[in-house]
Amino acid sequence: MGIEKDIQQYQFRNDFQRAEVNLIFTCNWLNERIKQIIDEADITTQQYNILRILRGSKKPLSTLQIRDRMLDKMSDTSRIVDRLIKKELVDKTICATDKRLVDISISAKGLHLLEQLDSRNSDIDNLLHNLTNEEALQLSHLLDKVREKHT
Question: CA 30 from chain center: how many Å?
């Protein structure tokens, strides 16, 4: 099965267009599968991303710093953070060095939720089970190469 069969399009302008369409289709496919895995936690993929960013930073971050690290740069970070606050998954405090800013940190409840979701990491990794470790590394390298010229 290839992209042609998946989207029922059998002609592309060229190999670059085929690769672009395949990349977009695969990205959406992967996002949907990850969404299904984390749905049990009643959070979105963007919320999951923010929680992982905060856990990995080991220190509070501003919403701007969070946005810079997010996978989906189009997300409304402030709105997503507000929803995480309502769920008590993150804490918001006034920045000690600049009273105009707020610091966001992951709460104990947020850490506990991520620990539960960590048990599903192998399910997420298995989404790429058709690739060998070497192929996964090569794919990652090729994707980095795609973005090199445009950053």
Answer: 10
DSSP state of 61: B
**Domains with residue ranges and CATH for the chain:** 42-119 (1.10.10.10)
Distance CA 25, CA 17 (A): 12
| Closest alpha carbon to 76 in 66, 85, 86 | 66
Which single residue is written with the structure tokens 């923010």?
A: 50
Q: What's the one-letter identity of residue 65?
A: Q
- Per-residue pLDDT tens listing for the chain (151 residues): 588 888 888 889 998 999 999 999 999 999 999 999 999 899 999 999 999 999 999 999 999 899 999 988 877 899 999 999 999 999 999 988 888 888 999 999 999 999 999 999 999 999 999 999 999 999 999 999 998 977 5
Report CA 72 to chain centroid distance, whole Å: 7
| Rg (the chain; Cα; Å) | 19
- 50, with CB counted inside 10 A (0-12, 13-18, 19+), is buried
Q: CA-CA distance, 29 to 127, in Å (whole number)?
A: 10
